[in-house]
């Protein structure tokens, strides 16, 4: 196998597939990346068995500056190889595989020889045998990921909660995540209805990596789902993720359908106040911030306290306030994550009692997005 290629395009492709490569894998060959030179171009593959990424650098794309002299395949140690390519002196690189998978990389006056592995030993990618693909607007899908993935669980004791639950049917998409202390649910209406219905759970880790690959210039992400795999197609890149097994708990009954007290805020304004209060709460062992609502004075007061350092108290003026007097405590980190997901929106925070979960929703189109947080009992 021998080819030459532009360093910029090659580095971009290597960075893309490297997202899937882990140094902690139990299968040694998966610490490498697979390069296949074929008639259409160069196919790069990285995998950690949970996530697999395959990207194609096409020979007919002039930006790639790709010339394939002889076809073939090789697996090279990902970390070393990527670092070498990034530091080569010239804009073009030539790669040639010799006997015993010894691979020579040359650029200008610089040449490296590294030991490769037989590509035939590299695990095969999952086969997705379905003709139904779901087109999703790239920017919207990226937003869905960022709004829900904050609430996935990090605890492996309940593996199903480490993913985001998607339910797709007709022209509706619902994504929900919970770690049993908080919940995030996003609903979206698709422009064109789809055939059939889908119900699956994708690991939060996979979605985080996928989100990083969706560029602002991307228009569409195409999704195909089988029994245990999901395939996302982004331009010339394929992103495979395993699906989590098991039944996701029914979360619809967790979201309250009424409230006794409601306050409205600009999300960035409240976020800044919570961040100030959490400066001290983080110094305390229990990390709690308290909010007090006084309907008569139309004020909301935030308290943060650390016995070792001191305390903070701040009066806020909500855009509106209705309902009963209330004092409620919560984890400020959960609140900050929730508020960041609303960006610039005006939000309603609805409370039922000091010990029941409360919800954050946008004032407009409130059914489309809900963040729910369970309060902390402080007595």
Automatic annotation (TrEMBL):
Assigned keywords, A-Z: Cytoplasm, DNA replication, DNA-binding, DNA-directed DNA polymerase, Nucleotidyltransferase, Transferase
A single cellular component GO annotation: cytoplasm
Matches recorded under CDD domains: beta_clamp (cd00140)
Highest taxon of the lineage: Bacteria
Primary role: Confers DNA tethering and processivity to DNA polymerases and other proteins. Acts as a clamp, forming a ring around DNA (a reaction catalyzed by the clamp-loading complex) which diffuses in an ATP-independent manner freely and bidirectionally along dsDNA. Initially characterized for its ability to contact the catalytic subunit of DNA polymerase III (Pol III), a complex, multichain enzyme responsible for most of the replicative synthesis in bacteria; Pol III exhibits 3'-5' exonuclease proofreading activity.
Family, as annotated: Belongs to the beta sliding clamp family.
Name this polypeptide is given: Beta sliding clamp
Lineage start: Bacteria, Bacillati, Bacillota, Bacilli, Lactobacillales
